[in-house]
Amino acid sequence: MGILGKLFKTVLKEAAEQIYSSSWFESKTDEDLSTLYEEKRQQWLKSGDDLDRWESIHKEMEIINDEMVKRSNERYEREHPDAKPAHWTDKNRWEKD
């Protein structure tokens, strides 16, 4: 991918991030985000050969997904405060159960 392609991707992501600000996310429930993500997924599937539209919608989906994952992780940490990480890290990879 050339320099212009990388610049275009950066501009698209920044534009989507401005639309989905922190305060906007705070006003939405998990169900709202799930519904919006599905709407965007349907639009993405229908975008066909329009690569600009495909890329724009995909960036929005990434931002919404990141927020959904963040909320899910925060909820899990609240519900399981003493849980060990499900994946290995350099610190825990040799520990035995």
Q: Which stretches are poorly predicted, pLDDT < 50 over at least 5 residues?
A: none
Count of extended strands: 0
Indicate the radius of gyration in whole angstroms: 18 Å
**3D shape:** extended
Structural class: mainly alpha
How large is the count of helical segments?
4
Largest β sheet strand count, sense and barrel closure: none
Strand portion: under 5%
| First and last CA, distance | 45 Å
Order of helices and strands: HHHH
| Average pLDDT over all residues | 80
Task: Provide an overview of this structure.
- Helix content is 70%, strand content 0%.
- It has helices at 3-19, 22-26, 30-46, 51-79.
- α1 (3-19) crosses α4 (51-79).
- It is extended, with a radius of gyration of 18 Å.
Set out the fold topology.
Blueprint: H1 3-19, H2 22-26, H3 30-46, H4 51-79
Helix pairs in contact: 1-4, 3-4
Short description:
This protein has a domain of 46 residues. 70% of the residues lie in helices and 0% in strands.
Features:
extended; 97 residues; 4 helices; mainly alpha; single chain
